[in-house]
Amino acid sequence: MSILIEIVDVVKNGSNIDSSCQKVSKEISDRTLTFLQFIESLEEILTSTDKDIRLNGIKALVSVLKQLSLDFFASEELEYINKFLCDRFIDHHSFVPIVLQGIVYTIQMKNFSKDMIVRYLNTLMPHFHCQSQLQNDRHTFYQILHQIFLNRLEDVRFMGPDFLYFVISSMDGERDPNNLLLLFRILPQFLRNFPLGHLAEETFDVIACYFPIDFYETDESKITRDELASNLARCLTCVDEFADFCIPLALQKLEATLKIAKLDSLYLLKLCCENFDPIKIKLHIEEIWRILKMLIMSDIEDSTDEVREAAIGVLTGLLYSLDIIKGENNHEQLSNFLDIILKSSHRFLLDTQATLFIPSIKLLCSVGKTSNHACCKIANKVYLMLLDKSDVSHIEIGRIIEAMGLITNMCLQMSIDLSSIPGLETKWEEICCYFLLYAQNDLPEVKISSLKALRISTKILTKSQRDNYYCIISTLIASNITDHIRQETLLCFKEAAKLYKEEIIEVIDSNIKVLNDSNDIDLKSKWLNALCCLGNEEYFFSLINNNLCANLCEKEKETQITLKCLRDLVKNTDNTKLLNHFALDGGLLNFILTTWINGIKDCANYEVFRNEIILEDVSFVINSVIKSIDNSEQLQIVNQYIQYFNEIVNTTINYKQLSAVKQDIHSYMIILLESILNSLNQNFKLDNVILLIENSIQLSTYSNISICNLSASRLTATLINKYIDSEDYNVLDKLQINLVNNLNIIDNSYKKNVINQISWITKALALKGHNRMLQWIDWSIQLLADPMYGKTMTLCFKMLTQTDNGYLNKECFCSVKLLYRQRIFCYVIEPLITKFNSMPEPIKENYLICILYQMDGNSYVTLAPYFSKILPVLLQLLSPDQVYVLQSLQTFRNLLESKTPILEDHLQSFIPKLLNISQSSKYMNIRIVALQCLYNCCDYSLIKLLPLKKQVILELGKCLDDKKRLVRKEVVKTKSRWLAIDVLKDDD
Amino acid sequence: MGLDNENPTLFDKSEERKVSEKDLDDNETEEFDSREIFDLIRGITDPEHPLSLEELRVVDQNLIEVDDNANIIKVLFTPTIPHCSMATLIGLSIKVRLLWCLPPRFKISVTITPGTHASEHAINKQLDDKERVAAALENTHLSSVLNKCIATA
Q1: Chain B stretch 90-119, residues whose beta carbon is closer than 8 A to a beta carbon of chain A
Q2: Please, what sign has the CA dihedral across residues B76, B81, B85, B90?
Q3: Which residue ranges are recorded for the region named Disordered (chain B) (predicted)?
């Protein structure tokens, strides 16, 4: 019982009530203490004459209550608690908040009876003025309502309008968004299940006064305007009784100028159409249409696309609603309204060239998609109207065809057979004939809209029409057409291939046969291109495979065009399945590898097998296919082909001592080897990696063929990145010593190769975050000082910031550390700047170029800490006599484009320099970039720009008479932007 | 919604001017020509519709006359309907755009294509009056409408 003595003390002092109460309620739940004993111990407190002590008593009581389970009390016990809380409620106004909390909890209890609820309400109704309470207490009260709405509505139903009145009067004038959101969420449940009677209008008014929601979100607010608006709209449309008030409200607010009000009203209207009885909607239909028409069918500026789309949404809602009116002539209502819509759009359909022609057609299409009846009616009317047009110009034909395509699309989506549309029984075939006819028209616009329409209607073409259609497609594929038309033609081809596989196979076969006998390279390329666009249709896989193989490797030209098609094909991510097909036994991959390996080894046709362009494409294709297949298939390919590379993989190569023939064979073979090994999964174990690396370095250093140098040094980098771990630093140190030796002893002509190899290895280590990375970077910085090959070394610093799509990235299973670029930047930038400032003239440049490369490759966040050091270098460069002004200007423009904040403080030092360059530089490119810099300056804050505006406008005026037109164009753009910087916007 | 012309006829836009080899050569000089002037004004928005003057065929390259050596530029524009109340505003925006974007050596004249507007003489006179053009730019409301039209050019 010590706990009871403790609690009495605690309650008297009024501190730390909650934790003691926790103990008490635990004992009560464990039945070691009864609730009665607890109340009795509080007797002195609860009957105290000091209201503060009484308040503490109630707090303790409620706090204990709240921690007991909902089924703890029997109904007799609850009866007492209920009476007690009612008494305390009217005892003193300061007790209200805590009693409300008690009520919320007790009302949820299992044994709480109807009488008790009525007792609560009878106490609350005369004595409680919700809006004079604090926000939290109001929230508690609304929670009480929520509980009643959820579970106890039957118990209060007998109170009828009194209860309803109590609810609406307590929420009337509520301003807190959190409370409103709660109310909007709980009200629909209540309103739907409680008779509104004569209070319907009052109820509606109390809710409607919040429409449209006027609420500005801040970063702290947890609720959004949209949430409030959508819940409010749901409240306003939850019962049919509201229809008579709600529709006029929505229509009235729709005429407001604020866009948000318009959108809200349209949303409300849409909900009205969905929720209210169609009979009620019908009464307002003409009024709604009058306003919708204005929003949809006008192109005045404030009716933006968003509003227009919302309005169309309402219209379709309206039509759905009309469609479900049942009765003897259930289409009558719908028909009448459709007539009204058709009548309003009629005049816009007359002039095909006018602005509103296509929007009206689109509107009718969305109307037609609401019901089959509407679809038939509209299709009938529009088709006949369009078919009847005669004596039309070419531009108009394009638009008519486009419109017919849209309408056909509508019919197909509603699965309406064109021949079943009244009035079209005989004419429907004519429509597709028009499409076919105009697809052969010379005007590109007409052609494109006809092709689009044909693609839509592929399904409904008759057999003879289809034959005609294939002819047209074949002719188009073979002829010289613009890219846009070709794209459209190929889409048609694809669609047809999807629906009529056998027929398309025939078409292809007959055309390819002709091709194989002819020598027309151009035509061949067009057909192969068309074939390749079917890369995601499994049915055509072997056809594509065979045709591509047949055209590879015999003649130089054919091989080139085939590889070009293949390159595009493998780039397209839709074609992954086809790539897997290529990797199968007897597939394209095997064919290419076998042919080229043999071709290179046998020193066959040099024009095909040793052509650099072809080899690059071949390597790209092999690489892409291998990248797309899974581990086991990769393993199989490597095991199958690695034997052909035995000399490179398993024996030490000493390039200089090889015969010339061997030298060449090795040089070309390494390109193929790279393409196979490049995208292998990292867990794939290669034997003799170190030997292979050394051989690659030999090849990259001594080979005379540039594509081979590149492949070999890239392969070295890839292998080091994948297979040389941080523990294997011996290998790297050995490589470094070799490379240093090479640099010192070999001919100058090879030194460039060695430098490139060093760059690639540095990049590989940097990507991996290898622990020898910094050592190699230091070495690279040192090499910059060399007068002979320092310039080549600068490329290393460019390479370090760039990512190559096909090589040394995560898709090729290389290890790439997060933020490696930033790490390198932070490491190199200070040494580079120091060297730039201290080195003599010609070498200085190398460091400068590296600084610019590094800056270009990194964002402002990385640059920021070093900016105070970089900026002087940059400003020094901004003078027309500097050699590197173009490059530094471009870097500068990138900085301005990304709104680098620190530059804002230096506007006045560099804007005059930029103006000077844009007037006096001899080179148009420099003038143009300077002007673009000035253009981007306008992103900074107005207050910094205004003092400079006058000078800039004046100086730019002088540039307007530049002799180059491209410069003048840039001047006009920049000057207009500067003129407009202080123009007030609408929303200001 | 008292629009003068609520459903105007639309025309196709011409393609962007192609950049030729000569344009990229630093030693060549290109004179101002009618296409360049047309490019300056074709993007101006009509005050009534969110459409450009080119789409409404209010301005046309064939109705622009340029003499670079004599420093003369003459632009004719065609209102969409003969009693268009916006004609002055359109003319003004063309004129202002050209004043801002061309070197001051040019004498610029902007007039209505003869016979296409009910009060063409009055409007031509207004547009030719330096004082009145300057005064229009001082007017806050007018200049904000003008800025809106020109902003898209």
Answers
A1: 100-105
A2: negative
A3: 1-29
Burial of A48 (0-12, 13-18, 19+ CB in 10 A): middle
Nearest residue in chain B measured CA to CA from A975: B101
Residue tagged 């590094």 (tokens)? A854
Closest-CA distance of chain A to residue B5, Å: 11
Structure-derived torsion over alpha carbons of residues A394, A400, A405, A408, reported in degrees to the nearest 10:
-150
| CA–CA gap between residue A751 and residue A754 (Å, rounded) | 5
Grouping H, G, I as helix, E, B as strand and the rest as coil, residue A343 is: helix
Q: Which of A353, A445, A963 sits opposite B29 (nearest CB)?
A: A963
Question: Is the sign of the CA dihedral A4, A9, A13, A19 positive or negative?
Answer: negative
> Letter for the amino acid at A903?
L
Whole-number pLDDT of residue A231: 93
| Omega of the bond leading into A161 within 30 degrees of 0 (cis) | no
CATH number of the domain at B31-151, out of 3.10.310.10, 3.10.20.30, 3.40.50.880, 3.30.300.130?
A: 3.30.300.130
pLDDT at site A718: 93
* CA–CA gap between residue B116 and residue B124 (Å, rounded): 12
Instruction: Please give the residue of chain B at the shortest CA–CA distance from A358.
Output: B10
**Rounded to whole angstroms, what are the CA distances from A627 to A642, A747, A968?**
17, 38, 48
Residue A348 touches partner B, C-beta closer than 8 Å: yes
pLDDT digits (tens, 9 = 90+) for A68-115: 888 888 888 888 888 988 888 888 888 889 999 999 898 888 888 888
Residues of B in contact with A983 (CB under 8 A): 144, 147, 151
- Residue of higher predicted confidence among A256 and A880: A256
Angle at A184 between CA A178 and CA A189, to 5 degrees: 135
What distance in Å separates the CA atoms of residue A879 and residue A917, rounded to the nearest whole number? 7
A961 touches chain B (CB under 8 A): yes
Q: What distance in Å separates the CA atoms of residue A465 and residue A462, rounded to the nearest whole number?
A: 5
A982/A96 Cα distance (integer angstroms): 57
**Which chain B residues are closer than 8 Å to A922 by Cβ?**
26
Q: Between vectors from CA A627 to CA A625 and to CA A630, what angle results, nearest 5°?
A: 100
Interacting residues of A486 by C-beta distance below 8 A, sequence separation 6+? A476, A477
- Digit-by-digit pLDDT tens for chain B (153 residues) are 346 676 777 777 788 888 888 888 888 888 999 999 999 999 999 888 888 899 888 999 999 999 999 999 999 999 988 888 889 999 999 999 999 999 999 999 999 999 899 889 999 999 999 899 899 888 888 888 888 888 887
Q: Count CB atoms within 10 A of the CB of residue A240.
A: 16
Q: Using an 8 Å Cβ cutoff, are A224 and A178 in contact?
A: no
Angle between helices A278-296 and A332-350 (to 10 degrees): 10
- The DSSP annotation for A576-638 comes to HHHHHHHTSTTSHHHHHHHHHHHHHHTT--HHHHT-HHHHHHHHHHHHHHHHHS-HHHHHHHH
Of the CA atoms within 13 Å of residue A674, those in its CB half-sphere come to: 33
For chain A, how are helix, strand and coil distributed in percent, rounded to 5?
Answer: 75, 0, 25
CB A677 within 8 A of CB A715: yes
Radius of gyration for the alpha carbons in chain A, expressed in angstroms and rounded: 40
Quick check: A356 contacting B, CB < 8 Å?
A: yes
| Two tokens, residue A225 | 């305007």
**Which has the closest alpha carbon to A345: A375, A319, A378, A317?**
A378
Reported as a single tens digit per residue, the pLDDT across A823-851 is 999 999 999 999 988 888 888 888 988 98
Pick from A743, A763, A745: which is nearest to A754 by CA? A743
Instruction: Please give, one letter per residue, the 3-state secondary structure of B22-40.
Output: HHHCCCCCCCCCHHHHHHH
Going from N- to C-terminal start, the domains of chain B cover 31-151
